Structure formats: C-alpha cells, structure tokens
C-alpha cells in the first residue's frame, strides 16, 4: 500500500535551493520519493503562487 504527503512551498520567503535539497534528502532517508510537483496559483490562496510537491512511500 502507498502513502502520500503533500508538501507546499510558500514563495513569500526567499527560496534557497540547498535548503530545499536538504529537506528532500531528509524525506528520502525516511523512504519518501517525489512523484509530482507543480507551481501555480491554487485555491488555498489565489493571490499567491505556491509550489506543491507530492511525495510517496510504501507502507
């Protein structure tokens, strides 16, 4: 069975690629892998663009 996690990155703070890589590597060590990502204006707050990353792992 698969388990999924939605990780939303908010661009209101400065993006630091190394910090995002570190966070992704931490998730990878826990067995998560990126299966999808998307950037845009979503219904959460249509005035702001977000990056959404979908993570998956086996239970």
Give a quick set of tags describing it:
59 residues, alpha+beta, 3-stranded antiparallel sheet, 3 strands
List the helices and strands and how they pair.
Elements: E1 2-9, H1 17-29, E2 33-41, E3 49-58
Antiparallel strand pairs: 1-3, 2-3
Task: Describe the protein's architecture and organization.
With 59 residues, this protein is an alpha+beta fold. The protein has one domain (2-58). Helix content is 22%, strand content 46%. The protein has one helix and three strands; from the N terminus they run E-H-E-E. The protein has one helix spanning 17-29; strands at 2-9, 33-41, 49-58. Strands 1-3-2 form a three-stranded antiparallel β-sheet, with helices on one face. It is flat, with a radius of gyration of 12 Å. 3% of the residues are buried. The model has no long low-confidence stretch (mean pLDDT 86).
């Amino acid at each position: 069975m698969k388990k999924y996690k939605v990780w939303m990155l908010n661009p209101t703070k400065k993006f630091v690629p190394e910090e995002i890589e570190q966070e992704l590597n931490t998730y990878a060590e826990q067995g998560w892998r990126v299966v999808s990502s998307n950037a845009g204006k979503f219904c959460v707050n249509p005035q702001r663009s977000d990056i959404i990353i979908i993570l998956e792992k086996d239970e």
